[in-house]
Amino acid sequence: MKMKLFGTTTILAAAFGLPAMAQTPIKIGFISTFSGPQAAIGEDMRRSAELAKEHLGGKMGGRPFEIVYEDDTFKPDVGKQKSEKLVQQDKVNFVTGYIWSNVLLASLKAVTDEGDTILVSANAGPSQIAGQLCNKNFFSTSWNNDQTPMAMGEYLQKKGVKSLYLMAPNYAAGKDMMAGVKRTFKGEIKGEDYTKWPDQLDFSAELAKIRAAKPEGIFIFYPGAHGVQFLTQYVQSGLKGQVPLYQVFSIDAITLPQQKDLALGILGAQEWVNDLPNDANKKYVADFKKKHGVYPSFYGAQSYDAIMLIASAAEALKGDLANKDKVRAEMKKANFKSVRGDFKFGNNNFPIQNFYIQDTVKDASGMLTLKTVATAVTAAVDPYAANCPMK
Amino acid sequence: MDYLLLQVLNGVQLGLLMFLLAAGLTLTFGIMDLVNLAHGSLYMMGAYIAWTLIGWTDSFVLGAILALPAIFLLGVAVEAAVMRRLYARDHLDQVLATFGLILFFNELVRVIWGPGGKSIAVPAFLNRTVEILPGVPYPAYRFAIIVVGGAVAILLAWLVARTRVGMLIRAGASNRRMIGALGVNIELLFSLVFGLGAVFAGLAGLMAAPITSVKIGMGDDILILAFVIIVIGGIGSIKGAFIAAMVVGQIDIVGRAFLPDLLKTFMSNAAASTAAPAISQVLVYVVMAGVLVWRPTGLFGQRT
Questions:
Q1: Which of A45, A281, A354, B170 is 20 to 30 A from A51, comparing alpha carbons?
Q2: Do A39 and B115 make contact, defined as CB atoms within 8 angstroms?
C-alpha cells in the first residue's frame, strides 16, 4: 500500500513536471536563549519570526518553510552544539538568531565553513566578524557591536557632556561597546569597569566608585535581565538625579515591564525604534501588539528582518536555493522592506544604516515604550569594514 | 573616606549573605560529615518559594517570613529521604548523590516555575537610601541585609554557644560517635541541623533575590564560594565560617573596587581593565591556598 502511494506521488510529480524541491520545505534554524533569566529575549525573537512567517503566508518563493528553534541556554558551547545539530542533522538551509556575541563567535565556523550554510545574525555583531573574520556566508540584520555606542558617544559629544564613566560586562560584546563609545566620545573618561559575565548582578562596588569619581554621565551596556538589575541598583544608590545615565541595549521593550517608571527619561541609541514611520514597521508593530499585547523589541525587529531577508532571496530565485552563489548574491541586494527602513549591505555584509536616539515615554494607554527623539548618525559604516578582505 | 566606608559596607553585606550560606554547609560537613553539593539548591529553593509566597501575600516581609518554615520542612524532608542514607557512605558517594539532587532540583524548578526566571522587587519601604553618615547615602535594602544577616549571625552564635542544642552540635562536631554512645538522639539532631542549615541557605537566597534575580542554578555559582569559605574558616566552625565569609566579602569588593586602579599604575588602561576582573576572580582561591599552607585545617578547624 505504502509502495503504491509512493509510486503514485512520484508519477504525479513527474506528470506535472514539478521539481522535487517544490514540496520540500525550506528549513531555517533559529538559535536563541529560551531558558533562564534571558529567555524573554528569545521569546520575543521567536514571536517576531513567527509573525514574519505569518505575514509571508508560510511560504518563500513558492515553497513552504519551517523554522527549527534551538536553545543555546546562554552558553557558547551549547550554542555551538546546537548550531552543529541544525546544520548536520536537520540540514537547514539557513541559521539565524544569535543574541550573544560569544555564542555567535563559537558557532560561526560550524555553520558557515563546515556546512557552507548561510548564517544571518539577528542580533550579535562582534567586531571580529565585521573585520578579519568576515565571511561570505555571514549576513547581519543588526549591526556591528561598536556602532550603537558610537552613535550614543557622538550624541553625547554634541550635547557637550564633558566626562563619562563606562560600565559593561567582561565579554566580547562588552569590549566592543566600550571601544565603540570611546571612538566618538572625546571627553574625559573618569573610569571604566568590566564586570563578570554573566554571573555578576551586584553592582554595589562599581556604583560606589562612580559616586566617588563624579562623572557628568554614566554610559552602560547591560543587556536583558542585567539591565533591569543595573537600573534598579542605580536608582537605589541614589545616583539618579545626580549623575544621568546613558545606555545601549539596557532598556528595551523586554526590560521595560520590570524597569517600569525607573526607565523614564533615560536616553539610549538604537538602529530601530518601534515608532519609525515606514509601512513595514507600522504593520509589524501593530500586528505584534495586537497578537501579544506588548511592544516588540529591537531583538524581535531584527529577527523579523532576518526572515524577510531570507524570503527576499528565496523569492528572487523562485525557491531554488541549490546554487549558493546565487543565494548569496540575492541576499547581498537586501531587496526587502526592512522595518528600520531600507538599507544596503557593506562589503562585510553588515548593514549601512541610520542610528537613532530614543527616550522612554508612556504611550496613550499608559504603557511604557520607546520614542525616537533624534537621529544620531545616518548611513553609518562600521569601523571594521576596512579590515574585511571581501569586496 | 566616605568611599572607603561604602565599599567596606558592600563587602560586609556580601560577606553576611555568604555566611548564611556557609553556616549550614559547615554544620552539615562538620557534624554530619556530609558533603552536600545540593546546599546551593536550597538557596535557590528559598528564593523561588519566597517568590511564590510574596506573590500570594502581596508583602515581601510576610512572604519571606512564611518561606522560612517552608524551607525548614523541605530541608527536613530532603534529609529524611536522601541524606540519611548517605551518612555511612564515603564522600565520593555523597558527592555523586548530592550532585544528582542539584539536577533534580533544577528540573523541579523548571517544571513548577518554568525556565524563565523570576524577579522579586525590593519592598517599597526599603526602595530608597539611608544616610549612614551625613551626605553618604547607602541603599536601604542592602542596609537591611546587613541588619538581618548580622542578627542571624548573633542568634546562631548564641544558639551554638549557650543552648543545649548548641552544646550537642559542638559535641557532634568534635566527636560524633561519642555523643551517640552517650544516648543523644543523633537522628533527631541531624534532622534539626540539616533543617536549620536549609533555613539559613533559603534566607540567603531570598534576601539575595532582589539584587541578583531568581533563576535556575543560581545556587550553583555561589556554592563554590561557600565551600571556599568553610575551607578557609575550618570545617565545622561557625566562628571560622563567619570570619572567612567577611574576609571573602572584602576580597571580592577589593578586587572589584581597587584592583583595576592599582593595576593601571603600572599597566596600560586596556590591559588593566581586562586583567582586573580575571585577577579578582582568582584572588579568593589564592587566599584559600595561602591559609591552607599556613593552617592545613583552616583558621578555626579541629586539629587532627
A1: A354
A2: yes
